[in-house]
Design brief:
The complex is a heterodimer. Chain A is an alpha/beta fold. In chain A, 44% of the residues lie in helices and 11% in strands. In chain B, helix 8 links the parallel strand 14 and strand 15. Classes of the chains: A alpha/beta, B alpha/beta.
Chain lengths: 325, 456
């Protein structure tokens, strides 16, 4: 007998969401390994710990809705359904990467999957995402532009200009703050004055709320509420996700700004494990069913790894292509 | 008391008397509206400076091109003797330059219009139906035509809609297209530029106006990092069809923070197209091409050129290809290269150059990036001497790069060093004489020509 969840998801739907969360987790763990092996270069910002945010939002999304985020984007592009092989091949800088090896970890896009990047300048994606929302409204499309930003971006000036414009022009935008408590090595307490981060948008007339971003069900309920509000009122909305990253800011982060105890304590509410527990205990899904899903994902990740390492480097002539259209 | 036509904007040299709101014999008090004056930017009200009676109206309503400081009426103020009524001849009133710099055209000077007519004939260009209009009207036409042709084209910026544009370039567009397509923004360059780029990524086509390009510095991260690089770093997935436009360079007496040329800044960036027209005809054809272009275009106008007129084709299909310069005057002795305002400075110097017995090739680059290298090298290989004129600071400038390209591609053809006449490396001063000194002038251009020609 299913436990009734507020969103009326079937067990099969919930298993799909779990599968996505598990995929992101395993993909990121593999990326960390490949980085350590020197197969991935540059910056590599992992999403481990924040999976409930992107998948909870995904549970409310229409396939036509658009998404934009900053540089911690692997989980986001996977959530949008882009083939993990193409994403990993981008991380390894190969010809078959989603950006042909010319973008890297921070710069991945897919118009077909309504994913607009992948942006490396903190805060810059926020006005861009508001502009995507502007385009939806301009063309009378019933789409919502979903704009992710971190707690660090919430102190960046252009973000407030974007809030003002989104509210002033009544644009269909959902702002999602992934508050993982640290902007690189600076804790939120050392960077942001005043009260809750989302309240910084409410002064522009944007309604919002703060949610437990470590729990898929909480995120999903909030995201669906937000979608209904935006559709009904044709106005933006903001959700602050209380979340945490288990890994460093990037692969080269020694993590001296927080204690191991703190990290371990947060791992007790690991969003992937918590969702699994809920599916087993509250939804009475068979352990074998979940094990099968997990083992399929693990196999898939092996293929992804192989593909990303066997794909050739980009042709040298690619250096000068796609500067102009 | 004499009522003079006042200077009502930094660049106003003449005005039109739209309407008298008083008649001779009317009593007025200080602050009453006497007349409506159309400046180069807007229609303004002229207030009475004192209490008194309108004694005489000297310039009829509907009169155009009245020079600043022309007497337009006499006011009888209590206790003041009536002055003798002067004979006024509008045609012969002296030309007043509000910024004290050299007038853009003098009788001696060769006009841009006649040069363009000549080059048009030489190039065998299609015979368009044409009308003589100002650059601001030409830009307005370009935007209007392209907005009519493509419903995805829209315009946003500060004061572009209800105010009719800070420089009247966007005049009337709100009435024609409505507030969905012509949008006044808050003073948030960083935010609205990012918004416009995002909208372009999603497939619609913004024309993003900066009231001046000085304000684009607030948004330069979005222009460089988001607009210019997205196509490349997405492996061709995301293009950004956007035009950033507005006045660039030094206007007149507006000081250091409002007087700067950004051609060298933007032309440094791969992924951006950079355009800088010198006249109305080119401005229209190039802006239309820019709006249709699928890449981000930085379209740099010049405030002092907004009022300058040339013949401009009226046809919807009139386009100038991006990346093509224009040999506006053909000679043989030296190649002089300019763009935007510096072309006008070259033309101002032309009579003095010709008096030296020198016949120059004059190239108006029009497009800075991509650059018409073929046209430049062909000319240099003929004349063997080069002078580059640019308004921007000389240090690390576009002109420096251009001289590198020329020496590297035409080394064996050069008979002299290449000379660059640039703006001086100082923040723009306010004082009239210093401002004039900070910008390239006729003497400097002529000296450069003499030097490359070995004339003492």
């Amino acid at each position: 007998m299913n436990k009734k969840n507020k969103n009326n998801f079937t067990n099969d739907q919930l298993l799909k969401f779990y599968e996505k969360m598990f995929l992101i987790r395993k993909f990121e763990e593999k990326a960390a390994q490949l980085y350590g092996a020197g197969k991935i270069g540059g910056f590599c910002h992992l999403y481990i710990g924040q999976e409930a945010v992107v998948i909870g939002i995904l549970s409310s999304i229409n396939s036509e809705d658009t998404v934009i985020t900053a540089y911690r984007d692997h989980g986001h592009i996977l959530a949008r359904g882009v083939d993990p092989k193409l994403v990993m091949a981008e991380l390894t800088g190969r010809k078959d990467g989603i950006s042909k090896g010319k973008g890297g970890s921070m710069h991945m896009f897919s118009k077909a999957n309504r994913f607009y990047g992948g942006h490396g300048i903190v805060g810059a994606q926020v006005p861009l995402g508001v502009g995507i929302g502007f385009a939806h409204k301009y063309r009378n499309e019933k789409k919502i532009s979903r704009v992710y930003l971190g707690d660090g971006a919430m102190s960046n000036g252009q973000v407030f200009e974007a809030f003002n414009l989104a509210s002033l022009w009544e644009l269909p935008v959902l702002f999602i703050i992934e508050n993982n408590k640290y902007g690189m090595g600076t804790s939120i307490g050392r960077s942001a004055a005043g009260g809750e981060l989302y309240e910084r948008a409410t002064v522009f007339g944007i309604k919002g709320e703060k949610v437990n971003g470590m729990n898929f069900f909480n995120v999903s309920e909030s995201a669906i509420r937000a979608r209904e509000y935006i559709e009904k009122n044709s106005k933006p909305y903001i959700i602050e996700m209380d979340t945490y990253r288990f890994r460093g800011h990037s692969m080269s982060d020694p993590g001296l700004y927080r204690t191991k105890d703190e990290v371990n304590k947060m791992k007790e509410i690991d969003p992937v494990l918590k969702m699994k527990e809920t599916l087993l205990n509250d939804y009475k899904i068979q352990e074998d069913t979940i094990k099968d899903i997990e083992s399929d994902i693990k196999k898939q990740i092996k293929d992804v790894e192989k593909f990303s390492l066997e794909s050739p480097l980009p042709d040298l002539k690619e250096l000068y292509t796609e500067v102009y259209l | 008391m004499k009522i003079l036509l006042p200077a009502l904007s930094p660049t106003m040299e003449t005005g039109n008397l739209v309407k008298w709101l008083v008649k001779e014999g009317d009593s007025v008090v200080s602050g009453d509206i006497l007349a409506e004056i159309e400046t180069d930017k807007a229609t303004m009200e002229l207030e009475s400076p004192d209490d008194g009676k309108v004694e005489k109206i000297l310039v009829k309503e509907g009169t155009e091109n009245i020079s600043v400081n022309t007497e337009i009426a006499l006011l009888k103020v209590d206790g003041e003797e009536i002055e003798e009524i002067p004979e006024v001849s509008i045609e012969k009133s002296p030309q007043v330059s509000s910024n004290g710099s050299e007038p853009l055209t003098t009788e001696e000077n060769i006009s841009m219009n006649s040069l363009l007519n000549q080059t048009k004939e030489n190039s065998g260009e299609k015979n368009w139906s044409e009308k003589e209009i100002s650059m601001r009207e030409a830009l307005n036409q370009a935007i209007e035509e392209e907005m009519k042709l493509d419903k995805d084209v829209f315009l946003l910026g500060e004061e572009v809609a209800e105010y009719d544009g800070a420089y009247k370039v966007t005049q009337g567009l709100l009435d024609k297209f409505g507030s969905k397509r012509v949008l006044d923004t808050p003073i948030s360059e960083h935010g609205f530029t990012g918004l416009a780029i995002g909208a372009a990524m999603a497939g619609i086509k913004p024309i993003c106006e900066f009231m001046t390009f000085n304000f684009s510095m607030q948004a330069i991260d979005q222009i460089v990092n988001s607009a210019a690089k997205s196509l490349y770093m997405s492996g061709g997935e995301i293009n950004v069809p956007i035009v950033f436009r507005g006045p660039n360079g030094a206007a007149a007496r507006v000081g250091a923070q409002h007087s700067q040329c950004f051609i060298s800044w933007f032309s440094h960036i791969p992924g951006l197209i950079v355009i800088a027209p010198s006249n109305a005809r080119d401005a229209k054809g190039l802006l239309k091409s820019s709006i249709r272009n699928p890449n981000p275009v930085v379209f740099l106008e010049h405030e002092l050129l907004y009022k300058e007129k040339t013949n401009v084709p009226e046809d919807n299909d009139y386009l100038i290809p991006i990346g093509k310069g224009n040999l506006i005057k053909e000679g043989k002795d030296v190649t002089i290269i300019g763009f935007s305002m510096s072309v006008q400075r070259i033309l101002n110097a032309l009579p003095s150059i010709e008096k030296l017995g020198i016949s120059p090739d004059i190239i108006d680059l029009r497009s800075i990036k991509p650059l018409d290298e073929e046209l430049i090298y062909k000319s240099v290989k003929k004349t063997n001497r080069v002078v580059i004129v640019e308004d921007g600071f000389g240090s690390t400038s576009f002109g420096s790069h251009l001289s590198y390209l020329i020496q590297s591609n035409c080394f064996d053809f050069l008979d002299s060093e290449i000379i660059k006449v640039s703006g001086k490396d100082v923040p723009m001063p306010y004082a009239e004489n210093l401002e004039k000194l900070a910008l390239p002038n006729t003497d400097e251009i002529v000296s450069a020509i003499k030097k490359v020609s070995y004339i003492n």
